[in-house]
Description:
Layout: H1 6-58
Amino acid sequence: MLNNIGLPGLLLIAIVVLVLFGRGKISSLMGEVGKGITAFKKGVDDGKKELEDTDVASARDVTPPDHGDRVPNNPEVTTETEPKDKV
């Protein structure tokens, strides 16, 4: 239905809206839309800044402590498994 509006159709719609609402109402509406867009952008920027601050604050050193040349000795740990008998 609205696939083939074209430029003349859009101009007609704009004129009808202008007549119905008046120039003052439309300009105040556009001002409110502009304020809303500005507030949205500010909120997005604040959110990004908050995430960056959180990432920096939560970053920590995760390297294991240096214990010299000590090799862990745990003879109980084996990597081989015994074969199971099939019945």
